[in-house]
Amino acid sequence: MTQATDSEIREIRDLILGMDKKIDGLDKRLEVFQARTDEQFKSIDQRLSTLENRVAAQDSRLWTFVSALVLALIGLLAKLAFFPKL
Asked: Can you give the C-alpha Rg of the chain in angstroms?
């Protein structure tokens, strides 16, 4: 079994430290990408919430319109039934 010299050990140590710095850099980049993704999800969530509110408002308007038509039809039928000569 061969023994490692001090220069070889220093070289290996320097390589390990270099790899550690690269890994730290990658870790920071991953954190940035994760933050961006989280913000994009929040933005999409807000857009969906806005769309849900718009759909609810349109649904409310539709039912108001349908109710008005039904009441007008009932009024017309009542007029024809109770006052046929007018």
From this structure: 37
